[in-house]
Design a protein that fits this description.
By secondary structure, the chain is mostly helical. It is built from five helices and no strands. Helix 3 packs parallel to helix 5. The model has no long low-confidence stretch (mean pLDDT about 90).
Length: about 180
């Protein structure tokens, strides 16, 4: 498949590539959109969510930095990873031992969007596995960052639910139990 001459009919210069690299870039674009949706759905009146809003504001551009760091210049550094690791630890401390095990992804806005971001971060990691298998160099900072994002978004869902006084619904697997 090849693009036509009308630029309005081309959403992304690499959209017709056969490699998994384009898939990775599309998934990280989706990830960035889910983070933006979660951020925009945090009620401004909820002062208890200002720290989460500030953190999502800082995480969102990191998703786009991950996006371009294989085809273009590396834009994720150890300082970004350490910052996110610190924020994850901060929120885990707030939770103490609230949740042990799996929970169903439920909650009021923006919890569903954070679960979608979590899932998109996983998809990005899987795409990186295929990209590397196809011969592209994938710096380890990128899957490290996406793994952290996945855990960060999940932890934020628990924190938001806890701050709102909502309990998670445990999930007990019939397959792995």
């Amino acid at each position: 498949m090849k693009p036509g001459k009308n630029r309005d009919e081309l959403c992304y210069p690499f959209i017709y590539e056969v490699s998994s690299l384009c898939d990775f870039e599309v998934v990280t674009d989706e990830l960035c959109g889910h983070i933006g949706a979660a951020l925009s759905l945090l009620p401004e009146a909820e002062s208890s969510m200002r720290d989460i809003a500030a953190d999502l504001d800082r995480v969102q551009p990191l998703a786009f930095h991950v996006n371009g760091s294989i085809r273009g210049r590396m834009a994720i550094g150890e300082e970004d990873i350490q910052w996110l690791q610190g924020r994850l630890a901060h929120y885990r401390d707030e939770l103490a031992d609230r949740v042990q095990g799996f929970v169903l992804p439920r909650g009021q806005m923006p919890v569903p969007q954070l679960h979608m971001a979590r899932s998109a971060a996983k998809k990005a990691i899987r795409c990186m596995v295929r990209v590397e298998q196809e011969g592209w160099a994938v710096p380890m900072e990128l899957p490290r960052m996406c793994n952290l994002m996945c855990n960060f978004f999940f932890t934020l869902t628990l924190v938001i639910n806890q701050r709102r006084g909502l309990m998670e619904t445990p999930f007990v697997s019939k397959s792995y139990g």
